């Protein structure tokens, strides 16, 4: 009896492709209020993998129900604070 899985039963090993990263990035830029499940359903990949791509490859995080880059410049931070205070 072998302890290794059959190749035919394995899931694709790599879903982090340039194509998926690009698609997720475009989706987020078009609608920053998307949630992980909506993106995952659209691309037919797991929400866990979408989360990994957004945070590790795109360097974004959730801030006030919008995905934004981790590091904002001083001007971007001020713009974000002005937008949040006007809502």
Automatic annotation (TrEMBL):
InterPro entries according to UniProt: Transposase-MT_Hybrid (IPR052709)
Highest taxon in the source lineage: Eukaryota
Designated name of the protein: Uncharacterized protein
Species the sequence originates in: Rhynchophorus ferrugineus (Red palm weevil)
Organism lineage string: Eukaryota, Metazoa, Ecdysozoa, Arthropoda, Hexapoda
């Amino acid at each position: 009896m072998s302890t290794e899985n059959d190749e035919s039963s394995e899931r694709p090993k790599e879903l982090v492709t340039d194509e998926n990263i690009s698609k997720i990035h475009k989706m987020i830029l078009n609608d920053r209020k998307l949630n992980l499940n909506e993106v995952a359903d659209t691309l037919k990949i797991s929400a866990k993998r979408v989360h990994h791509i957004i945070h590790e490859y795109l360097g974004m995080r959730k801030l006030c129900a919008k995905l934004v880059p981790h590091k904002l410049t001083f001007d971007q931070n001020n713009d974000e604070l002005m937008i949040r205070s006007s809502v």
